Amino acid sequence: MGEVGNTIRLLTILQSKGQAKGDYLADRIEVSKRQIYRYIGQLQKSGIDIKSKRGRYGGFYLDRNQFLNFNSINKEDIELMELACQNLKGTNFPHTKEIKNIIEKLKSSTSLPYSQYSSNIKSTDYYIVKENSSNVNTTYAKKLFDDMRASINTREKIRILYKSNSSGESYRNVHPYGIFSNQGEMYLVAYCEKRKDIRSFKTNRIIDYEILEEKRYKIKENFSMKEYTDLSFGVFKDKKIYFKLKITHPFSTIIKEREHIKNEKIVEVDENTITYEAEAMGKTEIISWIISMKTYCEVLEPKNFRKEVKEILQNMLRVYE
Q: Could you give the 3-state DSSP secondary structure of residue 194?
């Protein structure tokens, strides 16, 4: 990684850790301590106030109270930020409240007279986001999120106590690769030493965890978070399959309204019918999606997949006999 990338990484570590010694930063960024001092000097020249504290419990830290000029922000900018903050509520993002507080600080930091936006405070009431509330401890969720971010930046392993739907509670040593949100739930993407594979862990099922500061890891070569999420139909990463469907109205219209997977192919057969083709991981969720469209969806190919869906539907019918 070049100097610019290393400098940004140093800033990210300080933001997530709060405070870090020069030796720690040099080890995590994999440069000399002398380079760390040079990066800090460059940041300070750019106007970013990085302070230092001597002693055993000292280190470098960012001055959270440094002055920033927000005078270029206008009323429309603030309204857009408030809309984005409302949208975050629907994703269970753990720091929504903090972002709301930041927006309030921005309001007070602008050169706009209060009267110019005070009458517009309720203007975002027209935009409603249906919240997906999870039964989680907010304080724990925030700390977990921040520690996952720190671990990703410093390449430190995490030991988690995870409650799986299939295998129950177990301890796992994982190498965090990234975080993604899906349908209001948050997931940690990490290499699992127990399964010897990259897995997605639902964060509200991480009962307890510990950062293993002395245990370092390297991300698998050529891994990309974007590719990992693009190739999956949902969250589950089971076997990749090719499938072709025939979908009729009203679901044919609904399917055309948004992209479900990057490589999907939609062909209009007539005004009310489409064929849908794709290849993706997440067979379990693909089947659930197909069944959710009831009689408006038919599996055309492959034959063994059509047979599997048919057997699932027959088993469902037996429940009601």
A: coil
